[in-house]
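Memo to structure team: turn this sequence into structure tokens by end of day. - J.P.
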Amino acid sequence: MDALEIARWQFGITTVYHFMMVPLTIGLGLVVAIIQTMWYRTGKPEYLRMTKFWGKLFLINFIMGVATGIVQEFQFGMAWSEYSRFVGDVFGAPLALEALLAFFVESTFLGLWIFGWKQLKRGVHLACLWIAVIGSVFSAYFIIVANSWMQHPVGVEMVDGRPVMTDAWAVFTNNTALVAVPHTLFGALGVAGAFLLGIAWYHLWRRRHDGIDTMGKDGRIIPGDARDIPGRDKADYTVWMKSLRIGAVVAMISFAGTAITGDLQGKLMFEQQPMKMAAAEAACHDGTGFSVLSVGNLGAKNCDDIVAVIEVPGILSFLAKGDFTTEVKGVNSLLGEYKEKYGTHLPDNPLYGDRAGQEIQYVPVMEVTYWGFRMMIGFGGIAALAALLALWVTRKGVVPESKWLMRLAVFGILAPFGANAAGWIFTEMGRQPFVVAPNPDMNGIDQVFMFTAAAVSPGVSAGEIMTSLVVLTAIYAVLLVVEVRLLVKYVRGGVASAMPEPAHTHQDADSERHDKDNDTPDKPGDDVLAFAY
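Reply from structure team:
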């Protein structure tokens, strides 16, 4: 393996791992802010419990996301210095805004939220959380602006072989970014929805399994009160049932949102990166049909042996053009166009090192694009269907006693994670062999693009990158164990693990009352650090 291949593996592993934290942080932050707003408006104690519990899990994930995200920035200078030089003039603005404006605001107000439960008035405390959550959305926006420029470079001109920003407005309002941002946010909400649904189902099942809740003659649940177990009172049932319903509704709304924005994004991709979409459909020849299932050697340079077993006529045209009759160019037609525009072999340039003169493979790895596209849609659809079924099954407030169904609900949390990861892998792998894809609207000598083969650091050896790959992967593995253990610990502990009041003693409704200036019940010995870790 040469340095380029190892560097790509390193970036892929660390980035996908980090991105597993991102959608949960964004989506769960929004949900927690909504739940605390409901508590602020109604004063109902179950919403306070929900805020504390889901807020604890949100914070665990946020901190792990910060720790894993720092590595991404180091990689640019360590393994991708030529890429950093090429995009630096453009990326400087969005990445600086992401760090200085979005991330600093996000972390500052999140700190005020963590430690301000008793010190701040209710409205101010709630505003701190909303500002932090909005900061995370802007953080995602600035990152996506940078990534979208790699997919569709705009607002620049070439100066001495490097793109220089000439129109910041064009960069920040890139149509690729304006579609990708809501698509990403809806995907994040899908992760949060499944997270709430699966964990709430587990706790409702546990209450039935432990005999706390019983069935009435009318088929409805009778919430019980386990006097010997902290926090397992009647209000605890309400916490999990409301969490389940909120999670299911959020999951279904997010799927509808991702479907609509995904359609818009797909139409843009057909225009901006037609080879990526042709490979995603394993469409070797021009046509209108969408392949539900294709067989053959998806990894071959020539895809003529690929056969569509199940194909729906007209759907590919609809995905690309919005009608059912316009023919969409296939891989073979596009291959000739790419070779004519960008050459057949890598230039004889010191940037390419030993790779100079190699034949350019314009067709991305179709196993990744084809199945990644379908996994993205499939996992998202499964999560939405599961949410709909959960609402129907629990319409009488009852969770079935089936242990296997409970396990399925818990493992179902992974479905939207898989959809998000598959979507990003498809987006990034499908752009190859470009690290900055060419913009079809920018012609002639001002054409802006960069081959991935020219982006890797020339002064870093394969052994050095392999060492960093092994070390970073090991560190990430340790962090994964730490996060999973923390999440499992607090999930199993329920509300009592995140909110000290139910853990100290059973309190009646009066003990959970609060005044307008004090957000939590007065509890002797309860200090501000109880909600922090």
